[in-house]
């Protein structure tokens, strides 16, 4: 069965009469001095608490070794090195083989097979939590921290070893991540910048009258509503994946959401045009609005990196969309300055009496 990340896969045979599970895990190295690990978490679908078998080159002989490890919270928080210790589960046998046999060498991309025979608790065969990962360096006999992109942090699968089906909860988690990314890219990354463009350039179209304001408010409120849903999904994802902290992405998301809420509240406290505080409100509205747009776009790009989509076609499509919006904004900005300069020139000529109020040149006639 293919696993959801790192091009890993797993095969197994379950013997119901004695609840014995024969497993073979297929993974690959990402460094000649790296490690590949696979294990089972008997309690929950997360890294902490996993009973793992980790393979890496022996620092003395260079030969492949396979050692048992228990991933406790101190290791996860990098408070102490990961030390080998006997597993407290019924591990009956284990071994590992590099693809190509005993003469194969460990290199970037080398394929490894890890074999294990476990005795499961007879009433806990429906959902078995498999966890796997790989790293680039081993310090002595202590594997160091693995990469932290989305693929490496999503290397967990809950499988019913009787039916061979993957648990729905894990699929839902992956679906939530994708929905979170799509919604936030559209709301904070497209709709809110579009709303800022409508406010800046439509308000100067005299034929629209106050319509520009309703268009601007409608676009921004729809963006905020959609962005709030995306933000709530992000909070839920954090609850479903304790220990996975994307500090920069989270902090940018919170800051963007707060600015968006402040901007929405400002709509309900909008002074009339004759109010002496109107100019202060406009400064606040512009500063918070543009700040929200900039942070939102930056965090969309940060989100692509977190999800491991930094070089994907999805990011390319978003870049093309954003570039189009920026190109339109530049064209409208240039047009606005042309119109402004032309109007300023006409006003000056009108004050000097060179043209009449209708915009036609005036002059004296001689009889």
From TrEMBL:
Residues 6-135 form the DOMON domain. GO terms for cellular component: membrane. Gene3D superfamilies: 1.20.120.1770. Its main location: membrane. It is found in: Membrane. Keywords: Electron transport, Iron, Membrane, Metal-binding, Signal, Transmembrane, Transmembrane helix, Transport. PROSITE patterns: CYTOCHROME_B561, DOMON. This is Cytochrome b561 and DOMON domain-containing protein. It comes from Solanum commersonii.
């Amino acid at each position: 069965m293919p696993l959801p990340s790192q091009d890993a896969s797993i095969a197994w045979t379950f013997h119901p009469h004695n609840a014995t599970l024969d497993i073979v895990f297929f993974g690959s190295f990402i460094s000649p001095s790296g490690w590949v690990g696979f294990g089972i978490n008997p309690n929950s679908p997360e890294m902490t608490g996993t009973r793992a078998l980790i393979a890496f080159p022996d620092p003395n002989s260079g030969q492949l070794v396979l050692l048992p490890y228990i991933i406790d919270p101190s290791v996860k928080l990098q408070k102490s090195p990961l030390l080998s210790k006997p597993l407290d589960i019924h591990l009956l046998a284990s071994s590992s083989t590099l693809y190509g046999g005993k003469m194969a060498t460990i290199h970037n991309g080398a394929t490894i097979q890890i074999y294990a025979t476990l005795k499961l608790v007879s009433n806990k065969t429906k959902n078995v939590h498999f966890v796997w990962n790989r790293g680039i360096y081993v310090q002595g006999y202590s594997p160091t921290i693995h990469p932290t992109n989305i693929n490496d942090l999503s290397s967990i699968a809950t499988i019913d070893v009787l039916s061979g089906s993957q648990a729905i909860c894990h699929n839902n988690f992956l679906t939530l991540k994708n929905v979170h990314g799509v919604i936030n890219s559209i709301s904070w990354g497209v709709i809110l910048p579009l709303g800022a463009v409508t406010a800046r350039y439509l308000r100067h179209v005299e034929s629209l009258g106050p319509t520009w304001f309703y268009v601007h408010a409608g676009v921004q409120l729809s963006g905020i509503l959609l962005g709030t849903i995306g933000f709530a999904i992000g909070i839920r994802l954090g609850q479903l994946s304790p220990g996975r902290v994307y500090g920069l992405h989270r902090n940018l998301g919170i800051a963007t959401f707060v600015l968006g809420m402040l901007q929405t509240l400002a709509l309900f406290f909008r002074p009339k045009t004759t109010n002496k505080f109107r100019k202060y409100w406009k400064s606040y509205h512009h500063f918070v609005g543009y700040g929200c747009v900039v942070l939102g776009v930056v965090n969309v790009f940060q989100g692509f990196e977190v999800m491991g989509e930094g070089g994907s076609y999805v990011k390319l499509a978003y870049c093309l969309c954003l570039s189009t919006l920026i190109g339109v904004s530049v064209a409208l900005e240039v047009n606005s300055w042309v119109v402004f300069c032309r109007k300023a020139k006409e006003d000056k000529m009108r004050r000097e009496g060179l043209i009449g109020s209708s915009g036609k040149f005036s002059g004296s006639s001689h009889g």
